[in-house]
């Protein structure tokens, strides 16, 4: 099988322009590229332009880009034809070591995958239109385009009147005929959109690609109401969110919104930041006062919008407590030491995050009631509640969750939400206390195992917890150190020398 070394081929062509320009098309390309190389790329030349000349260059450059994109699509289409799947390993792309025509174009031209796909898709469409009526000797078939309603687009494209991106936007988003929409109707829409995208007589571009996409989809849906219902169902089913914790400890929330929720979100954000964008006028003195306050806020529109959304989320938890589990506004749980809190300097760790918090921020959150702070003494233990009650309180369970981060048993990866609070000293037999220092979270399996099979947990003066196996497992009953699944206790122990110094 013949193998193509594309890099060597391009280098050879560059070294021998006479060989490269072996026919009229190649010579034309060579002359065009040579002409562009003669155009200055010195920034100072562009800085010295008067405004009229600058605008003229902008129009000429737009025309040059449209023509260049069309030629790129024609080349990509021919590469696709010579890389057809039915050719298998003999296809051009595969012989060059690429999976398909799109990858070939992407890698050999250095464009994005999206640009390569657009070029190939448009080039194939141009080729189909050009082949219409031709006779295939191998199959005996007369060629016919698969999308004849798009002919007006290919004609405008080859005439340099619209861009490849505009042509692809119209053709792709108009879709295919079905029981509700005929090919003739699509041809009419294609003509209308093509006219909207055409370069105007003054040389300026017509409707931009983003608006063409919206117009194509909207006009298609006006003819096909069933597709509107289908699209609504698909977009509603696709709604959701992604919450990503970044390596820095910050995070990113990505929302996939259906059209209804998108409109609501846009309205909320617009009301929060519009004075910053200076897009509103006020006749109500009260509203003007609000606008002036927002305008004077030091936050950027993006920061202000995010803060408004988060505040609405927090307020919403109290406004409709039946909507979600738990009650009240969400709380940030943190751990720190009494000395750090008093001195204003030390480690504050946020539960559920790899990031640390400053004492300054902790104190601010405490004023607003937005944080549950677990304060540890010099012995690394939270304050206990003695023997007044048998069961651990909600606050104590939260403390155990933050302290251990999951089931305390060796090798167990059960999440803390699946655990139960276990007294290391039994309530009756050992006169144990119901406090955080004498409790550990255990999953159901290990809680039963420890109680029923004679396993014990002991805590020493350094705040370490040791698991003592029963004689049936280890006759010597060698203690095994239990390690919390979080770094909270490690942080606090590391702080001890600094506290006692």
How is this structure best described in words?
With 501 residues, this protein is α+β, with helices and mostly antiparallel strands. It folds into 3 domains: 6-232, no CATH class; 240-323, no CATH class; 405-486, no CATH class. It is built from 21 helices and 11 strands. The strands form 4 sheets. Strands 5-4-3-6 form a 4-stranded mixed beta sheet, sandwiched between helices. The chain has a 3-stranded antiparallel beta sheet with strand order 9-10-11, with no helix packed on it. β1 and β2 (251-256) form a beta hairpin. α9 runs parallel beside α11 (183-197) and α14 (259-277) packs across α15. It is elongated. The termini are far apart. Mean pLDDT is 79; it is low at 16-21, 383-390 and 427-431.
Main features:
single chain; 501 residues; alpha+beta; 3 domains; four-stranded mixed sheet; three-stranded antiparallel sheet; 10% strand; elongated
Question: How many helical elements?
Answer: 21
Low-confidence stretches: 16-21, 383-390, 427-431
- Largest sheet geometry: 4 strands, mixed
Question: How many extended strands?
Answer: 11
Q: Alpha-carbon distance between the termini?
A: 77 Å
The radius of gyration computed from the alpha-carbon positions, rounded to a whole number of angstroms, is 35 Å
Strand residues, percent: 5-15%
Helix residue percentage? 40-55%
Helix and strand arrangement:
Blueprint: H1 6-15, H2 17-20, H3 24-38, H4 43-47, H5 51-81, H6 92-95, H7 101-109, H8 113-131, H9 151-158, H10 164-174, H11 183-197, H12 209-223, H13 225-237, E1 240-245, E2 251-256, H14 259-277, H15 285-295, H16 301-319, E3 332-337, H17 338-343, E4 348-350, E5 356-357, H18 359-368, E6 371-376, H19 394-404, E7 419-423, E8 439-443, H20 444-453, E9 456-459, E10 465-468, E11 480-482, H21 488-500
Parallel strand pairs: 3-6
Antiparallel strand pairs: 1-2, 3-4, 4-5, 7-8, 9-10, 10-11
Helix pairs in contact: 5-8, 7-8, 8-10, 9-11, 10-11, 10-12, 11-12, 14-15, 14-16
């Amino acid at each position: 099988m013949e193998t193509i070394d594309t890099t060597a081929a391009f280098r050879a062509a560059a070294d021998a322009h006479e060989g490269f320009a072996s026919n009229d098309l190649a010579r034309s390309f060579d002359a065009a590229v040579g002409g562009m190389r003669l155009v200055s790329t010195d920034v100072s030349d562009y800085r010295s332009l008067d405004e009229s000349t600058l605008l003229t260059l902008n129009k000429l450059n737009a025309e040059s880009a449209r023509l260049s994109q069309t030629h790129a699509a024609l080349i990509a289409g021919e590469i696709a034809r010579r890389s057809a799947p039915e050719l298998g390993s003999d296809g051009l792309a595969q012989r060059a070591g690429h999976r398909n025509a799109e990858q070939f174009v992407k890698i050999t031209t250095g464009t994005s995958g999206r640009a390569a796909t657009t070029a190939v898709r448009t080039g194939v469409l141009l080729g189909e239109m050009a082949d219409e009526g031709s006779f295939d000797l191998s199959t005996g078939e007369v060629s016919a385009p698969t999308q004849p309603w798009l002919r007006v687009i290919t004609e405008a494209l080859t005439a340099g009147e619209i861009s490849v991106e505009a042509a692809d936007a119209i053709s792709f988003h108009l879709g295919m005929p079905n029981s509700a929409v005929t090919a003739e109707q699509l041809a009419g829409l294609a003509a209308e959109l093509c006219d909207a995208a055409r370069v105007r007589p003054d040389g300026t571009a017509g409707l931009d690609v983003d608006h063409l996409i919206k117009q194509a989809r909207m006009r298609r849906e006006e003819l096909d109401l069933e597709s509107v219902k289908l699209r609504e169902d698909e977009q509603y089913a696709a709604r959701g969110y992604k919450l990503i914790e970044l390596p820095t400890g910050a995070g990113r929330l990505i929302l996939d919104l259906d059209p209804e929720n998108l409109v609501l979100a846009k309205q909320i954000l617009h009301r929060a930041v519009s004075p910053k964008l200076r897009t509103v006028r006020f006749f109500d003195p009260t509203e003007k006062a609000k606008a002036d306050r927002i305008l004077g806020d030091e936050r950027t529109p993006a920061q202000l919008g995010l803060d408004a959304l988060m505040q609405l989320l927090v307020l919403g938890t109290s406004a409709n407590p039946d909507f979600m589990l738990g009650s009240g506004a969400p709380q940030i749980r943190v751990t720190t030491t009494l000395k750090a809190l008093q001195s204003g300097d030390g480690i504050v760790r946020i539960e559920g995050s790899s990031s640390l918090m400053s004492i300054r921020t902790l104190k601010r959150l405490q004023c607003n009631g937005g944080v549950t702070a677990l304060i540890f003494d010099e012995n690394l233990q939270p304050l206990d509640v003695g023997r007044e009650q048998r069961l651990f309180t909600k606050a104590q369970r939260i403390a155990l969750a933050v302290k251990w981060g999951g089931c305390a048993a060796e090798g167990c990866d059960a999440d803390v939400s699946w655990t139960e609070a276990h007294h290391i000293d039994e309530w009756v037999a050992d006169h144990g206390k119901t406090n955080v220092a004498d409790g550990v979270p255990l999953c159901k399996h290990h809680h039963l195992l420890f109680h029923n099979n004679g396993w014990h947990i002991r805590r020493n003066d350094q705040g370490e917890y040791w698991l003592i196996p029963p004689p049936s497992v280890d006759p010597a009953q060698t203690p095994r150190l239990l390690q919390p699944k979080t770094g909270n206790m490690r942080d606090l122990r590391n702080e001890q020398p600094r506290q006692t110094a």
